[in-house]
Design a protein that fits this description.
alpha/beta; ten-stranded mixed beta sheet; 14 strands
Length: 279
Amino acid sequence: MWLGMHRLWWLSACLLVACLPDHAVQGRAYEVRVPKSYDGTTPLPLVIMAHGYGATGQLQDSFFPVSNQVDAKQFLYALPNGTVDRFGKRFWNATEACCNSGRLAVDDVGFFRALVDDVKQRYPVKEGHIFLVGHSNGAFMSLRLACEASELFAGVVAVAGSTFEDPLRCGVGQPVPILLVHGDKDTSVPIEGRPGVFPGAKETGARFARRNGCTGTWRDGERLDLLGGADPESQQSLIDGCSSPGSVELWTHEGTGHLPLYDTRWTSKIIDWLEERAR
């Protein structure tokens, strides 16, 4: 009960505004969290959270608490915020499917480039260690950035998202490791996709694998315990034939919907996954 009330409090308090923002870029507030022991001079990896539609960076972190790894894993953690739409909800201009319903002229690829530049002006960022974690609309946005800013980002974790329906929209570029995470009971962004709107998770992964120069096909990997319960509930799938750093994986949460509730098991594992694939 307390956990549910806590999440509702965050939802009401942080839905339209950034909670305790540190900085701003292009008129949008964002926060940077740093390790408690940080000396301010050592270059550290940068992880950026791209929130889901209607959320904020801080709210998304309450659901996906990547911040609980900042001290243990020693990285900078940026929580930016999307643009407020006509419904009063924040969004990223990712693809036609999600989630710029008002067709506002928002250049979010440019925004994320400016965000990285702004963070670099404030903190020493370790080159080749800039990563994205996105959920839903933020996952769509993260995958767009893997297409259009591949030289900037060294890895993407995309939860409950997809890519452009038209494969030609994601052109050539540097290989970007992609970790797709999806619940097989997701009705908002179904794991099998929506024909004519956006591709399913395995098709999305296969497209990035081809873009990354991978030569193999999907195969099953390990069973993973990422959400609790008596038995591992997630199936790892991988595409073979990927040279470093272009690996592509899918972690399927069985029996899980659009918003998995994560703890340190998942957050620790994804940060390790990203760091292992740094350039």
